[in-house]
Specification:
Strand order of the largest sheet: 5-4-8-7-6
Number of helices: 17
Largest sheet: 5 strands, antiparallel
């Protein structure tokens, strides 16, 4: 019995080596992952059936209690038997591929064993076929691909070996020889086949784990690339942003060239073939035009399929993917390869994932652009509401001063030009420096204080270090105008103070007046919605608050506090939005 152990271990080693070599083959790995099709099932039967046949040929011959070290069994004597690892391959095939694979593998290995002869030929063949049936139907219960449990597979293999021993005792004749054989081979075969099954199932598991790890890495890479390209795709499809995106993709993929197009021209081409695939040229490859028409991913595995008109083009294969915004194809992303073998399944899945992520980024960029345009429209609507009335009053004031105080009229005219220049600048800029917003306020006040001298006083307390901090345009001027128009309507000698100071990495901007205050029923609505009132609609306050929320999110704040002693509006901005002075 002990003499049989190392010989059986050698036989298991042969199958384990074969299994390891197969695990390195792409075709076998694909079968393990996609065993549902008929062709894959037939291939699994062929593979694991071959393991059974090899086990039969390499079995250890047992004749009248003597162990033969012969390594290749072509024909077994009538009074002899074989100790082998046949059950191991059948068990793995059944547990991995299900009933069809299990039964098929059992039939191949079992019938082959019967052809070799020996007094246990029928018993061993029958037990092998039975093992295929049993393990095939245990497939659903164990699901070793989904729930890794190697010991279940090992115990199944041990059970089927024990069953084989039982069938030898039941079917093999003479019975005395069967008993002696089982006494000799039972422990070595059960032990070694159980061990071999464990090694085999660990190899299968390593294939599954490696695939999952690869998918995880590809997903991580996809999101990393998407994160790197987001700042550029947020600007939409243009030559500058697409060139930066193409450089990033080329760095993080196996592709030899990256190209991005819109529907008419090449926006960027980085890498091989850039001597004739040039930025700004009209689309020339028929493959790209086909993708734009169909809106589907197309793979070219040869130079002819790419259909580049340049005969010297080095590009040999490509993956061309549509970039879509709101289900409309707006461009393409192309990964080119000099060696078609580099365009493997992993790179294809990565490219397809990037295509979807980039399409989402472009949709977000489009949504952001639409939102910005909407905000600009709101600002322009606010300007249209303010400007005509203000212009009419300003011109009247200036015209009345021309004969009495021409110098003052000239200064007011300059202030009026500053006011309207600030309006135009604010319409063009998303944010402007605080000092520009203060110029807007001062220009407005110069004209209003000429119209209503000594009616109110405005004071400024501005931290000089904050004048470069970027703020949304039309933030202060509407607040000051509200105070002048509404707070002091029935009050003389009003006061308005404007303060700006830094606190906890934020700029605090406060506009405060000593006017008559805002009624409680209006205070709850102002800033959150427009209102119906004889004094106005609250559009300015609502617009300011909404823009702060859109630009700064939770980092910004807008609060109104009011009582019979006056109104205080507090705005908070993050200090990091510093920039150059707008011009």
């Amino acid at each position: 019995m002990l003499d049989l152990m190392p010989l059986m271990l050698e036989r298991v080693g042969i199958l384990v080596i074969l299994a390891f070599l197969l695990s390195r083959m792409k075709a076998f790995r694909r079968m393990i992952h996609h065993e549902h099709g008929l062709s894959e099932k037939l291939m699994l039967i062929a593979v694991f059936g071959s393991f059974g046949i090899i086990s039969n040929y390499t079995g250890v011959e047992i004749a009248q209690g003597n162990i033969s070290s012969q390594t290749w069994q072509i024909e077994v004597d009538g009074d002899a038997a074989i100790a082998n690892t046949r059950i191991m391959g059948v068990v793995i095939g059944g547990l991995l591929g299900g009933p069809f694979v299990g039964i098929g593998t059992g039939l191949v290995a079992g019938l082959h064993r019967m052809t070799l002869g020996g007094f246990t030929a029928f018993a061993c063949g029958a037990s092998t076929i039975l093992a295929g049936f049993v393990t095939g139907f245990l497939w659903k219960r164990f699901r070793i691909k989904d729930n890794f449990s190697p010991w279940k597979a090992v115990l199944t293999g041990i059970f089927m070996e024990c069953t084989q021993m039982g069938l030898i005792l039941l079917l093999a004749r003479p019975f005395e020889s069967a008993v002696k054989l089982v006494e000799l081979i039972a422990l070595p075969m059960i032990t070694i086949n159980g061990f071999g099954t464990l090694i085999f199932i660990l190899i299968i598991h390593s294939i599954l784990v490696e695939e999952e790890r690869t998918k995880a890495l590809q997903t991580h890479k996809s999101f990393y690339i998407a994160q790197q390209t987001l700042p550029f795709f947020r600007k939409g499809l243009n030559e500058h942003s697409c060139k930066k995106v193409a450089e990033i993709i080329l760095k993080w993929t196996k592709a030899d060239a990256i190209s991005i197009t819109n529907r008419e021209i090449v926006l960027a081409h980085i890498g091989a073939g850039s001597d004739h695939h040039k930025q700004g040229q009209t689309l020339v490859t028929k493959l790209t035009k086909k993708v734009l028409e169909q809106g589907k991913i197309i793979k070219a595995k040869s130079k002819e399929e790419i259909q580049c008109p340049n005969s010297d083009c080095p590009l040999q294969s490509a993956i061309v993917m549509p970039l879509q915004v709101h289900n409309q194809t707006v461009g393409t992303l192309k990964l080119y390869f000099l060696d078609p073998s580099l365009m493997d399944k992993v790179e294809q899945e990565l490219a397809e994932g990037l295509s979807k992520l980039f399409s989402t980024q472009l949709e977000l960029a489009d949504a952001e652009l639409q939102r910005k345009l909407l905000k600009d429209a709101e600002i322009k609507a606010l300007q249209a509401q303010i400007n005509p009335h203000f212009l009419f009053n300003s011109l009247n004031t200036i015209s009345s001063l021309i004969r009495t105080d021409a110098d003052k009229a000239r200064k007011l005219l300059l202030k009026l030009s500053v006011f309207f220049r600030s309006n135009l600048q604010g319409a063009r800029q998303f944010v402007i420096p605080l000092e520009k917003e203060l110029e807007h306020v001062e220009a407005y006040l110069s004209i209003e204080q000429t119209r209503f001298p000594d009616k109110y006083h405005v004071s400024f307390d501005i931290d000089q270090n904050l004048k470069k901090v970027m703020v949304p345009p039309f933030t202060l001027q509407p607040l000051v105008e509200n105070a002048i128009k509404h707070a002091f309507a029935n009050k003389e000698h009003g006061k308005v103070s404007i303060r700006a100071y830094a606190e906890n990495d934020q700029m605090i901007l406060i506009t405060e007046d000593n006017g008559s205050g805002i009624p409680d029923h209006l205070l709850r609505q102002l800033g959150n919605q427009t209102v119906q009132s004889n004094d106005g609609t609250g559009t300015a306050l609502w617009n300011i608050k909404k823009r702060i929320e859109e630009i700064y999110g939770s980092a910004g704040a807008f609060h109104i506090k009011s009582d019979e002693n006056g109104t205080k509006v507090t705005i908070k901005f993050p200090l990091e939005m510093k920039g150059e002075v707008a011009v």
